[in-house]
Amino acid sequence: MFMVLMGTVIIAGIVGYVSERSGFTNNGILQSIIICIGGAFLAYFVRIMFGIGFNSPGMNAIASSLGALIIVPTHWRGTVRNRRRR
Q1: pTM of the model
Q2: Is residue 72 within 8 Å of 35, Cβ to Cβ?
Q3: What is the pLDDT of residue 24?
Q4: Dihedral, 17, 9, 60, 63 alpha carbons, nearest 10
Q5: What DSSP element (H or E) covers 67?
Q6: Banded model confidence at residue 1, pLDDT cuts 50, 70, 90
Q7: CA nearest to 41, candidates 13, 58, 61, 17
Q8: Distance of alpha carbon 2 from its chain centroid, rounded?
Q9: Is 60 a residue whose pLDDT tops 90?
Q10: Is the dihedral of CA 70, 56, 34, 20 positive or negative?
């Protein structure tokens, strides 16, 4: 169980970093990683309590991380680079 949790956190962190570097989000690298890890924790505990999710813990981590990035309203914010110029 503990190793699955650690793998979930690592996969979520990688998804957050890659999504920020690819331009999918404009939150900032640390913020995207935190959002992804929060979504992955939520999906992990839902999987433990209710058994809802994919069979693979890795797929749960990827799907929940991307879902958290989509749900968190970030479209109204400018890019990090534009905010630094102000």
Answers
A1: 0.80
A2: yes
A3: 87
A4: -20
A5: helix 57-71
A6: confident
A7: 61
A8: 19
A9: yes
A10: negative
